[in-house]
Amino acid sequence: MPICTPGGSRVEEKIFVTVRVRPLSRKELSLKDQEAWECIDDNKIVFKMSSQDRSNSPSSYTFDRVFGPTCLTERVYEEGAKNVALSALTGINATIFAYGQTSSGKTFTMRGITENAVNDIYKHINNTPERDFTIKISAMEIYNEIVRDLLKPDSGGLRLLDDPERGTIVDKLEEETAKDSQHLRYLIGTCEAQRQVGETALNDNSSRSHQIIRLVMLLNFSFTLLYDVYNGYRKIRNNNILFYIFIPQTVESTLHENSDCVKSFVATLVSYSYWFNNTNFFVQCSIWAYKCFLQNFVDLAGSERAGQTHASGARLKEGCHINRSLLNLTTVIRTLR
Ligand code: ADP
Ligand code: MG
């Protein structure tokens, strides 16, 4: 379904796939390595070299957008990620993730995208003072199949639980409220510093874990309702959201989605008063509520071939876990399509 995000343009697809080719590193240049891929237009990359390994593979691929080695992160963000990065502000849960071989530039790119997204999220919040947002952050890494809290690194491995309401959740994952954009940037920096890094032959400073930074955006609002108890419940339409308010269980509300955007809604009764007339019993409630949207930034650990990286011992074990989890991710994505 077409949707409009603060990024401006209308997007038809729910999955947007881009490729970024990084420039050759100093080490690669000194070894006289050649660039293997060329972006021939905004959508197509072509394999430039002859390789026996790839003799059965296509020589070109088409994506929603491709970015060449001279392209700056700002442009990758603007044209490849901004729409998705800001979609949580309009009620669409979204995820941006980087996938690719070790040393292909995932961490470099995700860092820039997260930074730009944080700037734009706060810009949007400042430009819409009539809306009251709270931003919370949680962050975890998955290293050798163990989930660690990057905001609370001493807490040890965390358990995954199946919650009937919320789906799969990470038990006891810390969630911190960001006071402002500077505080949020500080928290993200702290998480990145906690992440497992190890040296491999392909990358001197390789991320060996998957990192998930989750921004929880809460849109706070309050309203007053007047209703007639004998009618059982009453439907109230507010901002295109349909509330069903039941009594007498204080307030229980169900959000009925007009689209597939809005996922959760929580309401708290602040105060109420009631009175009778001849035939009816009325209750007036003041309700404070918030809607909750999620934006995930995922920097995956890189896939690699053990033979190419000369990995052994701990590095080899990590590599096996990384490759297995990426394979599982491929299965998930295939299923989603
Ligand atoms: P990955 O996370 O995929 O293993 P990194 O993001 O760590 O790879 O990148 C590997 C190296 O290449 C790092 O030193 C990084 O600074 C550099 N690099 C990656 N992408 C770019 C880019 N677009 N421009 C300049 N340097 C880059
Ligand atoms: Mg990395």
Please provide the ordered H/E string of secondary-structure elements: EEEHEEEEHHEHEEEEEEHEEEEEEEEHH
CATH architectural grouping of the largest domain: 3-Layer(aba) Sandwich
What's the CATH superfamily of the largest domain, by name? Kinesin motor domain
Task: Find the count of extended strands (DSSP E, 2+ residues).
Answer: 22
How many individual domains?
3
Annotation field: number of helices: 7
Gross morphology is: elongated
Give the names of the bound compounds. adenosine-5'-diphosphate, magnesium ion
Largest sheet: 8 strands, mixed
- Overall pLDDT metric: 78
Oligomer: single chain
Task: Extract low-pLDDT stretches.
Answer: 1-8, 232-264
Radius of gyration, rounded? 24 Å
| Level-1 CATH class name of the largest domain | Alpha Beta
Secondary structural class: alpha+beta
Helix content: 10-25%
For this structure, the CATH topology of the largest domain is: Kinesin
Distance between the termini: 15 Å
Strand content: 35-45%
Briefly say what this structure is.
With 337 residues, the chain is α+β, with helices and mostly antiparallel strands. It has helices spanning 26-30, 73-80, 82-85, 106-127, 181-194, 306-309, 313-336; strands spanning 3-4, 10-11, 18-20, 37-39, 44-47, 60-62, 65-67, 94-98, 132-143, 146-149, 157-158, 160-163, 167-170, 176-177, 197-198, 206-207, 210-228, 233-238, 241-246, 252-256, 264-276, 281-299.
